[in-house]
Design goal:
The chain is mainly α. The protein contains 29 helices and no strands. The relative contact order is 0.09.
Length: 623
Amino acid sequence: GGATSARRSGGQKAGKHKAAMGERDTSWVSAMQEEVPPKCAGGRTHHRADTIYLLVMGGRVIAMQTGFAMLEAAHGRPMNAANIMMKNIMDLLLGVFVFYLIGFQIGFGARAEWIENFDFDYALWFLHFSYATTSATIISGAVGGRVSFFAYLALSCVVTGIIYPVCVSWTWGGGWLAELGYVDFAGSSIVHMVGATCAFVAVCISGPRIGRFPEYRAWRGVSRWIFVERNSSEFYQNPLSEVEKAIFSPLKVCSNPVQLLFGTFLLLLGFLGFNPASTLSTTLDADSLAARVTIVTLLSATGGAVACVAVSLHQFRSFVLTVPMMTNAVLGGLIASAASCHTIPPPLGLVVGFIGGLLTLWLEPLMAKLQLDDVVGAVAVHGIPGVWGVLSVPIFAKPHCQSQLRGLVFGGGQEAWRLLGVQALGLVAMAAFAFVATYLCIVCIDIVGGFRCSRAAELIGLDFIEHHIDDGSLRLDTKKVAVISHTPPRDCLVTRVKNRTCSPTKAYLEEKFPEHQKAQLLRDREAQMRAEIIRLKEDVSKLTATLSMFVHGMRGGRGSFMDLGFIGGCDPKGAEPSNPEQGDPGRKEILEALMREAQSAAATAEAHSHVQAAIIGTQAAIE
């Protein structure tokens, strides 16, 4: 103990001497390594304060999943809300396993043993896992409401375990882009642009939601082959049959604006951990850099909000701020700041965020004009602002205590131009790799099990189809049951290799709705139902004429009732003659009979509507 104390005292004196000489004080590393068992000394590469810092900031980044989930659910239909939440939590839980197994090793060359590895940097692993799962969840918002649950999870695992780690190995892992001098402090490109590229490929292959573009034109020619298009344009344009039109839920840009704003608040708080966490420490003067990064991040969010105000003034000619525009512009500004927040002056954070917000609001309508259905605007929010953030480094960088980079605006000259070329090269390389890798992954998923969900699943809602969440409407709406029961499964390798006669959803329907077990029963009764409808129509016509004559009789006297003939079992001609002084019992009986027939007419009309609904369901089953 005395020897350890003496060594610690000597290390502290040496550290003070180095600090006085202006050198970095690293004596604390050897001091802490001496205080732990020898077998654990290799893993002690961070100061204790830095380890806690990475864990806390990584937890805040993972909490951004909550914001993403709420934002995506607010943009989509309520009948898909639980599916979106399930996707966000499952890609987090599966991503842990994949990133622990292969992801971190690809990115940094360090592998976590199955039992225990005392030299493994668990704090750094945790932070980069939080970045990886953020990149993967971008896809969920872009293709919400139309992609199969397990197909999405498979793609998410590939992004978390392969695509993101490869891009990390080129940059933060010390690869070829890092050797060229590529700069992306907190992941504008490595996290956000890569995730947006993956989302763009998924949007192109999956196609739009039904009814999103009424004049949609499916891929044609070579593009149809490239993007594995199997459906016609009419498949996406509108509901096809009367049954589909009856159950179709119109699309909205935002179904819950309050939830959308709350999700954006959570993401803003998450970015205040996302960007500063890339300092990787708070010691050795990194704490002041973390504070600087935080200020630049907030100012960039403000710049994005100002961009929304400017666009709104130009578009609406008044101070009208729509909720989706504001939230996406703010997020675009935050993402643009991630690459350069450590090196630009804080006031320029407003400029970087402002341009990022403008680019987001410019790309969103362009995507819609190109008939690319991005539900939350993920490509516009994460893609082009991420590109701009990386390019802003060689433009606005200014030397300060923690960075020596100098941009073009501050006289960077040839070095700044060279850095601009390196940044552009890195963007192209990572976007190309992410595009090709995602394309190959989705094509394989589509061949094996189908990437897009079935038509019935999209129209009914993925909450019920994927998770059996019944809101009670299926018991009342026979059209929904008919659509679910008789929609053929997705054409894929599974259905071609194995003759699937029953799915979990159909089994659930057979258990919960026994009256709809056999579609053949409806087909067999079709002729009988049609004949019944014809008879009921005749009865309704007859009763309508009878009621008209009844009203005429009330106005014209007893003689009109004598012409009605046999009605409701009452024969007026055989009734007892009326006595003007004692009333008219024959007329009374006729009136009572007509009243009974009027009540029967109402019941008949109701039965007629139910039979019509059954016929519609039968027609859907036959189709």
